[in-house]
Amino acid sequence: MANEVKAAVQLAQAEERLRQEALIADENLAHARAMRRVKVAASWTAVLVMPFVAFACVYVLTNYEDFPAQLITTASATLFVGVFGVASAAYRSMVVRKTPESPLRPTTEAPTLRSAR
Length: 117
Known about the structure:
The chain is built from two helices and no strands. The chain is mainly alpha-helical. Helix 1 (2-62) packs antiparallel against helix 2.
């Protein structure tokens, strides 16, 4: 009788653990989908907006006689920081990505420590 109760408790605990892990996995997938949408939106914004910003800055810098000094300084800073900053951030996120997204793996396994290399 005691073994049957113990087995029933263990089965209930395992079922609850599995239910919680399924909820966590669903939440992680939803978060990954949302982050992917954010990354795609940011990338498209950079692709569509930054050429116009760069063109405006280059126009101001090539016709510097027609604009005040403060606008020329702002255009040069915007060109350097904005355009080159976005380009380097896009390059780093697409090419030099150091941390790959976590792969899907079973969560019901016992946790193990990764070996330090």
